[in-house]
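Lab notebook, bench 4. Still working through the backlog of constructs that have no structural model yet. Next entry is a single chain of 306 residues. Request: give me the structure tokens for it.
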Amino acid sequence: MKLGYYSYTSHLEHDVGDIHPEHPMRVIAINHQLECMGILHGAHLGSCHQVHRQDLVRAHKEGYVDQLELMSPTNGSILANVDTPMAVGSLNVAYQAAGCVIEALDDLMQNKVDRAFCAVRPPGHHAEKNKTMGFCFLNNVAIAAKKAQQHYGLARIAVIDFDAHQGNGTIDILADDPAFLICSSFQHPSFPFSHWRNIHENVINTPLNEGSSGIDMRRAVETQWLKQLQDFKPQLTIVSAGFDAHRDDPMAELNWSAEDYAWLGGFLSEISKEGPDNQILAVLEGGYNLDALAVSCGEFITAFHL
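Model written out:
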């Protein structure tokens, strides 16, 4: 499988301060780990284009995109939401993150790569149609999913989210559209405390109790996701890849290991073979212990592009 890797150095302009957990060292740690593992040798490296407004408004309300522009500070920083700082460069970085994901999607659709991983920040899966929250401004995964559907005409897109915190924004944007099958595992109860009930026909919520192990996750995924995904036969799989369920992560209370992320990568690779094109686009979400994030991400990428 040909791997595409998409990242950029301008994410440093999203300056959240040294004590905020969503800081630039997250991407730097991943890049270093992948280089040490040799994963990037021979990979297609994306150049990260700026996202177009038409891509944004497939997923977000136009008024919300306008609001972000109006909110963006000209000096210093503000709180766009109680937990989401917005500095002078933050919105441009969010645009570039979305642009990376769109570039990866385009490369997959043009068969330049078979697997794509986007090491981008800020994350996106908590951003709703018209709401900033959870460190997120733009929902990168939903933006890509909507383009895959409306521009490329795909009718079966699997959206997988294994972040420790449920991707409420992705559900807010994609729920009740049969073109998408959304499978989401997360610690429960935990932030964002919404969208966790199974009230949408195309959403499979898999809540996990505090302290749940990787074995618990694997059993739940095989029980609740496997047959649904096999029957769905996705033409494309898009992944919200959060690594904060690791036992060493400070932002959750789950008990996974790097090997569990390798298992998830292998599981998704096998499931994608059920569809006609066997393509996967994974996008970084959470993960805040730098060592655990870097190693887990490396194991996941190694497994999902074999």
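Notes after review: The mean pLDDT is 95. The chain has one domain: 3-304. Flag for follow-up if needed.
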